[in-house]
């Protein structure tokens, strides 16, 4: 059962094709669109500003979304938010990626098809042009992204869209096994390479 809380008479909205892990927490003015994936222990706390996940976006394990009163925090269509990232009062553009443990602050705008590298700190009010690689703390635009890097990002997001479907169909709470089976299966599905390996493979 998804942990959803009403506050001040405002209740989160979750599209029936979205998957929200039961350990995630949604409070108040939260809107989760079609085909989204919300990972374990994510916190979407819409007790001040509105939080919006547009179609096909994902918010992974232990991510936090929050914002000031009157402000919207938005992940646009096919946005991809890596493990442990924090989004506060910002806008993540269409098909953009925010890397693991990054922080994007108030009124920052990440342009469409951009990538914010892991562990980056995007200052309040920063505007990142489309198709940019953003790196560092404080974050700076390092360069424009290549077509193959954007294709890599899109492939990874498609996997999370598939994971939303697979999770709804097959995930269930159960008891751990006490012994390793002799013929233990592996997860049988195509997987994207990490970006540094993808670059080597495409070189």
From TrEMBL:
InterPro entries: Hexapep (IPR001451), PaaY (IPR011974), Transf_Hexapept/Carb_Anhydrase (IPR050484), Trimer_LpxA-like_sf (IPR011004). CDD domains: LbH_paaY_like. Pfam families: Hexapep. It comes from the Bacteria. Gene3D superfamilies: Hexapeptide repeat proteins. This is Phenylacetic acid degradation protein PaaY. It comes from Duganella fentianensis.
């Amino acid at each position: 059962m998804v942990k959803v809380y009403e506050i001040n008479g405002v209740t989160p909205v979750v599209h029936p094709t979205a998957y929200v892990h039961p350990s995630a927490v949604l409070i108040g003015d939260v809107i989760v669109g079609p085909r989204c994936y919300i990972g374990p222990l994510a916190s979407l706390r819409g007790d001040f500003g509105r939080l919006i996940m547009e179609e096909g976006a994902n918010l992974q394990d232990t991510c936090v979304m929050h914002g000031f009163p009157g402000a919207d925090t938005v992940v646009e269509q096919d946005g991809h938010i890596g493990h442990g990232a924090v989004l506060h009062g910002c806008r993540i553009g269409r098909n953009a990626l925010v890397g693991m443990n990054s922080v994007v602050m108030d009124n920052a705008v990440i342009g469409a098809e951009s990538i914010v590298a892991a562990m980056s700190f995007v200052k309040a009010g920063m505007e990142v042009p489309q198709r940019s690689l953003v790196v560092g703390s404080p974050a700076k635009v390092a360069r424009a992204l290549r077509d193959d890097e954007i294709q890599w990002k899109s492939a990874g997001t498609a996997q999370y869209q598939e994971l939303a479907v697979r999770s709804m169909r097959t995930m269930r709470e159960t008891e751990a096994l006490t012994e390793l089976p002799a013929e233990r299966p592996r997860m049988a599905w195509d997987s994207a390479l990490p970006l540094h390996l993808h670059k080597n493979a495409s070189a």
